[in-house]
Amino acid sequence: METPKQRPRILIVDESRLVRTQFIQLIRDHYDFREEVDGEGGWQALVIDPSIQLVISALSMSMPVLDGDGLLARLRSSRLARLRQIPVLMIAGDDEAANARARALGASDFIVGSIGASELLARIDSVLRLAQAQNELRENPERDAQHPDTGLPTRQRVEVQAAQAMSYALRHESPVSILIMGFDRFDALRNEHGEDLVKELHKRFASMLATKVRKEDSLGHYSGSDLAVVSPGTPYPACEAFANRLREAFAVANIAVHGKRLNLSVSVGVANTPVDRLNSASSLLTLAAQRLKTAQEAGGNRVVACSDRSSSRQPAPRLGHAIDLIKAGHESAVIPHLLQLGNEVLPFLELLERELKLGLPLAELRKRTRDREH
């Protein structure tokens, strides 16, 4: 008789019984759990219970023993690799300094106390997948490094590359953008033309992308036919402009089968830090994937990006973004961004161009500004 597979166990550390009960209710149908009231109890549980695969901990606790920061610091400095590498989700508070301290100590991701079940389960799944990928690559760095159809890195590699880019970005306060893109109406395409043709289209799609990403970008598989680009140092307007160029390039590509041109399109989901205020690679990848799904459900052949959000957290346009775009080699994205700044900034831009020779397309900017005013 086959032994049932043991579910992953999650340790919940919080001095509030109400908070612990709340999280237990959200995860109990999917994960085993253990609860502790303070960091010291959490540490002892982790030492003696190797079945624990993830920790959910309060950011700071008023207990006179070990608080959340102390538990995180002790884990990350442990001599046991199992404890040093265990993913930790911190329950974020309103104290930004405390959040930054936990991030520097090595928190895997942050969640809010009012998080819903679906989002929490998605965060846990992403963090556990990333931890598994990192462990497998540490044990066997050459295994499953490339996808057999395209030769691109597998999802495991992409997740690790995204984590490395995010770690660097948090240390140096630089942006990271992630694009996840895929064919629209993929199932219908496969049903109509067959698996072999779809694989060939996938290879062409991957080849086209490989010629367009920068050397410092990472291109690989995400899920099914969806591909991901991890783009360190790219501000959100540049990444959105790049996504639209990829979408447009594929839309006009002349791909034919038996002499008949296929009506193909792709959609792209874009996520960016710091715009999306996420602190982990797994949450950034998940958000980009959700935006891809939103784009496809809205009819496809579109990009859903950070700037599509109506949230009050969306940053106001500023000249720094325009300069970032130029430095990143995305001059074509400068005009729509600068247009948001209004006509009053034109004299300053003209002075900036005379002094620094940035290559700002001032003539076209003046024309578009006039068109908007009329």
Automatic annotation (TrEMBL):
Superkingdom in the source lineage: Bacteria
CDD domains membership: GGDEF, REC
Start and end residues of each GGDEF domain: 174-308
Catalytic activity: 2 GTP = 3',3'-c-di-GMP + 2 diphosphate
Residues of the Response regulatory domain: 9-128
Pfam families listed in its UniProt record: GGDEF (PF00990), Response_reg (PF00072)
Gene Ontology MF terms: diguanylate cyclase activity
GO cellular component: plasma membrane
InterPro entries the record matches: CheY-like_superfamily, Diguanylate_Cyclase, GGDEF_dom, Nucleotide_cyclase, Rev_trsase/Diguanyl_cyclase, Sig_transdc_resp-reg_receiver
GO BP: cell adhesion involved in single-species biofilm formation; negative regulation of bacterial-type flagellum-dependent cell motility; phosphorelay signal transduction system
Enzyme Commission number(s): 2.7.7.65
Alphabetized NCBIfam families for the sequence: GGDEF
Protein name, entry field: diguanylate cyclase
Organism: Accumulibacter regalis
